[in-house]
Amino acid sequence: MYFQEDVDAGAIIVQESVPVEHGDTVETLQERVLTVEHVAYPKALELLARNRISLGDNGKLIWNL
Fold this sequence. Notes:
- By secondary structure, the protein is α+β, with helices and mostly antiparallel strands.
- The chain is 37% helix and 9% strand.
- A two-stranded antiparallel sheet has the order 1-2.
- The two termini are 21 Å apart.
């Protein structure tokens, strides 16, 4: 089994973009990111639960079509 010791250092399963708007503060940008994470995270979990993805021995993402 492959283990990633660092936080957010593993394979990217789902990725969304978040615009940085003029006048953003750290707080407003964090809120926008959190909103998108609440959508992306369940998508990633569903892919895992439906066995659509897995990790290879080298830690790379495998798409099970």
